[in-house]
Design brief:
Two copies of one chain form a homodimer. Chain A is mainly α and 226 residues long. The first copy, chain A, contains ten helices and no strands. The interface between A and B is large, with 43 and 43 residues. Chain A binds a DNA duplex (30 and 30 nucleotides) through α3.
DNA sequence: CAATCATGTTATCGATCGATAAATGACGGC
DNA sequence: GCCGTCATTTATCGATCGATAACATGATTG
């Protein structure tokens, strides 16, 4: 049946009839499309629908991935690991600039990655599925982002000792507020009109003033760096 | 087969062998258990597993609900509608008390409802499923909670005109931060150790000071109420 | 041009899904 | 104590799921 009617074989088009891609290229295409597919429809969607979207047959997926779960693991890796920018940690630690500047730039870059439909939805799907990768990711956010922010804020105020747990919690509060703004935008389709940059500016200011107030009850700094 | 071995009919126990509950009572039990079941396993879980948890057979569900989607709709209603407390709106508008007090009490009561495993997970599952009920719920939060908060803050400062969109956005930021704290607690199992009350107190203070700063650039109030 | 091998498809299995029809059995009214 | 009503179970249907085996085909190489 299929193939009997050649459905207008456009000679100009790349003639991408239906076959023969090199292994690596095909695999990359599978993962890239699987990200969007699972982000949109959830991980419980069928491999047949994914194959249909890819324009191949379903068993072909199993030539590239041993099981559906292995494909999903590749999706996780592509989204979580490969979109994390190590330069963020460098940026946050750059004491030649005021911390407020660094935070504004960081959250602009961070939201550019995270405030996307596939990142957000895959994060939420994975979280509800109970996979450990989300917990590890939040550990990364704490250790590489939030704790450094608190430390930088203390350093800018002339304090050198360790962070208190309350400060870390407050940084989580603002960070979570920013993140949830992305959830509202991307998952619920709200807040499109409002400006991300303005939201970030207000959030950064609230974070810094909140951290400052939180340090008010502490003893005066013994060493002033500047 | 079943019934041939009475599997130790404990005479002391309520002898809940396997049958005959009045219709209304059975229906309520189904919905109550379906909330926990779907919250834990997602809405794509099978009706057979739900029936097993309930100790009944799967077709019995279809005598009480026309379809699985109808049962899910009942779950939504039970979680979203019936756990919303109208007195929250009264509390927030009670101008005999300082706004900070009202906010601290409100968020303590609100998180008592929302920071539960089934509420949180059903909210997130429903959001990813794309059902409109979540969008309507967030409209409720804005109109009954956040906009009133902004209005109360302006009133306490002696302003009487309408809210600006930036203030509403900032209220969403802090509210989202509180909500996301619940996600971390309930969904990801983090932050159990830290105190919810302390987090709320810091969040309320940040919200009020943030709103105050946001009004700083505006013209002076023409009418002072007190 | 024929042999080879990796890519891709066809066909199909066993399990599980939501849902329906028919049989069963517990309980109250008489 | 029988009887009918209605809650509940047994049995089953058609669709869909992940996965596997067997077959087909295009490209490469000698």
């Amino acid at each position: 049946m299929i193939g009997a009617m050649p459905e207008v074989p456009s000679d100009t088009a790349p003639k991408e009839r239906r076959k023969r891609l090199p292994s690596g290229e095909r695999r990359r295409e599978f993962i890239a499309q699987a990200i969007e597919f699972f982000a949109e429809n959830g991980f419980e969607s069928s491999t047949r629908d994914l194959a249909k979207r890819l324009g191949v047959t379903q068993p072909l997926l199993y030539r590239y991935f041993p099981s559906k779960d292995d494909l999903i693991a590749e999706v996780y890796s592509a989204v979580y690991v490969k979109r994390w920018k190590p330069e963020w940690e460098v940026l946050l630690a750059d004491r030649t600039r005021p911390l407020a500047d660094r935070l504004r730039q960081f959250y602009r870059e961070y939201t550019e990655v995270v405030f996307t439909r596939d990142w957000m939805r895959i994060f939420l799907f994975a979280g509800l599925k109970g996979v450990d990768i989300n917990i590890r990711y939040m550990g990364l956010v704490r250790s590489r982002i939030l704790d450094p922010i608190v430390a930088e804020a203390r350093a800018e105020a002339g304090l050198v000792d360790a962070n208190g747990p309350a400060e870390s919690d407050f940084a989580w509060l603002i960070h979570g507020g920013i993140f949830y703004n992305g959830v509202r935008r991307v998952v619920y389709g709200e807040a499109d009109a409002t400006d991300v940059g303005a939201m970030i500016d207000n959030a950064v200011e609230a974070m810094l003033t909140g951290l400052e107030k939180m340090r008010a009850g502490e003893p005066a700094p013994k060493v002033r760096s500047l």
